[in-house]
């Protein structure tokens, strides 16, 4: 049985995590590493035209979800874009040109990935090309028939959203979820992995800490150990994710008030005013790219609305979008510390200026 790691929003060893992701990893290649180094140089030089390619892609298998989580724009059925599944054609159009450079593909963003019947085909496509894959799911839709495709896909990491140790607390946020089913599915996957003697997928239990479940943290740790989970990760709640990427602390407080835990270390938005200005602005515009189910290209996972896309794979290819006018203008915004307005989502992003 694996030793269960317990992680909190504080206490992350940032540099060790970077080494594990990009150096001491089976997904390493000299070409990827050279591109990564170029990308790191860009984070200081902040050129408008990127000369390195993305090392990470976030690609959304489904823009739909079966749950109604109240702080999530998909769960609230907000009008972001048409609810569809990603097709293999768009998937390959996004991934293929970047195969030699990508360290990791995250197959999730604003929806439930298991709603896409071709999910594990996409995972396998990446892992066969030596790209690390991560899927995050509510695990309510997992069925036994998916076990073999999952195990054979080469998936590196499976993150499971489970915010509680009882149906009562779980359902306060994961509305329409099924606590027993998620626990049952976690058990089956951990059991099957042990039966096969496999190390992958690495299982991460993601627990968003709210007021109604913070007292369950010790029980959750004990349960994770019992279930054979590799890591249990306690994270802070976000609010108004649909409005602006990583935006404005205080505006969001009101919506979060019903949910915030007493432990202020999980209050993302309280500490922002005291946060130091970052020496290096948001790196995403130079090292990662996000693809939506309809082929829309967004600058990061925090962008939800179609109007905020930087381009589309339906009428362009990915490298053309990567250095198109919107990208270059947004990079200029970051380079000028917000003085230049690009009229993109990046203009208002808290990541660049916590005092906004
Ligand atoms: S399970 Fe995830 S995608 Fe679905 S409504 Fe909840 S937070 Fe949103
Ligand atoms: S500046 Fe904000 S919106 Fe723009 S890419 Fe970075 S995190 Fe995303």
For the structure shown, list the relevant keywords.
single chain; 356 residues; alpha/beta; 10 strands; globular; binds iron/sulfur cluster
Textual characterization of the structure:
With about 350 residues, this protein is of the alpha/beta class. It is built from twelve helices and ten strands. It has helices at about 15-20, 30-45, 90-95, 120-125, 145-150, 165-175, 180-195, 215-225, 250-255, 285, 320, 325-335, and strands spanning about 5, 55-60, 105, 130-135, 155-160, 200-210, 230-235, 290, 295-300, 310. A hairpin with a 4-residue loop joins β8 and β9 (about 295-300). Mean pLDDT is about 90; it is low at about 240-245 and about 245-250. One iron/sulfur cluster binds near residues 303 and 352. One iron/sulfur cluster binds near residues 246, 282, 302, 303 and 345.
Radius of gyration: 20 Å
**Alpha-carbon distance between the termini?**
47 Å
The number of distinct β-strands equals: 10
Largest sheet: 10 strands, mixed
What proportion of the residues is helical, as a percent range? Answer: 25-40%
Task: Set out the fold topology.
Layout: E1 5-7, H1 14-22, H2 30-45, E2 56-59, H3 88-95, E3 104-106, H4 119-127, E4 132-137, H5 147-152, E5 157-161, H6 167-173, H7 179-196, E6 202-208, H8 217-227, E7 231-235, H9 249-256, H10 284-287, E8 288-291, E9 296-298, E10 311-312, H11 318-322, H12 325-335
Parallel strand pairs: 1-7, 2-3, 2-8, 3-4, 4-5, 5-6, 6-7
Antiparallel strand pairs: 8-9, 9-10
The structure holds iron/sulfur cluster (2 copies).
One iron/sulfur cluster binds at residues 65, 67, 69, 72, 74-75, 111-112, 138, 161.
């Amino acid at each position: 049985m694996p030793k269960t790691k317990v992680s909190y929003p504080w206490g992350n060893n940032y540099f060790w995590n970077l080494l594990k992701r990009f150096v001491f990893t089976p997904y390493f290649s000299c070409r990827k590493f050279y591109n990564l180094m170029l990308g790191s140089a860009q984070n200081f030089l902040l050129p408008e035209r990127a000369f390195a390619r993305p090392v990470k892609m976030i690609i959304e298998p489904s823009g739909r979800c079966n749950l109604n989580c109240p702080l999530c724009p998909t769960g609230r059925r907000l009008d972001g874009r048409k609810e569809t599944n990603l097709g293999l054609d768009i998937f390959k159009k996004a991934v293929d040109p970047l195969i030699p450079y990508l360290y990791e593909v995250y197959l999730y963003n604003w929806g439930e990935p298991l709603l896409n019947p071709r999910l594990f085909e996409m995972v396998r496509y990446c892992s066969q090309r030596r790209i690390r894959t991560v899927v995050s799911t509510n695990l309510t839709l997992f069925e036994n028939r998916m076990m073999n495709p999952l195990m054979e896909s080469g998936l590196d990491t499976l993150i499971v959203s489970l915010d509680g140790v009882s149906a009562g607390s779980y359902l306060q946020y994961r509305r329409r979820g099924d606590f027993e089913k998620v626990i049952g599915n976690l058990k089956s996957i951990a059991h099957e992995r042990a039966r096969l003697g496999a190390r992958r997928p690495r299982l991460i239990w993601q627990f968003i800490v709210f007021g109604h479940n913070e007292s369950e943290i010790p029980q959750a740790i004990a349960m994770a150990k019992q279930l054979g989970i590799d890591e249990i990760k306690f994270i802070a709640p976000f609010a108004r994710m649909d409005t602006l990427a990583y935006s404005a602390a205080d505006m969001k407080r009101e919506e979060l008030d019903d949910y915030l835990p007493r432990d202020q270390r999980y209050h993302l938005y309280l500490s922002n005013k005291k946060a130091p200005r970052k020496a290096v602005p948001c790196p995403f515009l130079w090292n990662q790219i996000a693809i939506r189910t309809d082929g829309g290209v967004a600058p990061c996972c925090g962008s939800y609305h179609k109007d905020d896309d930087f381009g589309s794979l339906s009428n362009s290819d990915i490298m053309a979008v990567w250095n198109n006018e919107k990208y270059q203008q947004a990079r200029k915004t970051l380079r000028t510390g917000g003085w230049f307005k690009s009229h993109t989502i990046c203009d208002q992003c808290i990541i660049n200026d916590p005092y906004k």
